Each structure stands twice: as C-alpha cells, then as structure tokens.
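In full, the data:

***
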Amino acid sequence: MRRCSASFYVTVTRKLAVPLSESDAAIAVQRFARFTTVPTDATFVAAALETSRAHRLSYWDALIIEAAASAGCDDLYSEDLTDGSVLRGVRIRNPFR
C-alpha cells in the first residue's frame, strides 16, 4: 500500500463520522492503485510554481494541474477552479454545475 493510500485507508476507516468498513476501504485502495501516478521531482515542482504565479493559483492547485497535464488528462474535475478554463492544456470542469 502506498503512503497516500495508507493515509486514505486510516482516514476513511477511523476518522469519519460514518466510517467505511475495512473491506470497502481496502477495495477503494485497490481501485486507486490502477490510477496513473506522476512522479514529483524538482522540475515538476518548478513547473507548478510557474503555473501558480502565471495563473494566480495556490501552489496546491497548481500541483494538481501540473499532475493532470503530465498524465495527459483532457479534463480535471474540481469545484475549486474556474469551470471551463483551460490551464496547461487541461480543461477544468466543475462536477456540480
């Protein structure tokens, strides 16, 4: 189990008001393992910093955009970014619109 998956597992089985069962959480972790992962290195961080400055975004939002662009995603679903905008070739979609 990757570190981020372990954090997810602990959170959803122990820290939620209505926690997931251990078996449901384990299934979710297995499904996450199929996702494309993007390695983080100095070049990636520098690109995120530039995206953050260029588009006046938080560093964390810029990291997400850089990861989506690096993975070749066409769309990024987020309620925190401007729906319909295109950043680094990735179209932002608000799933609640």
Q: What stands out?
A: The chain has a mean pLDDT of 90. The chain is about 50% helix and 10% strand. The two ends are 34 Å apart (CA to CA).
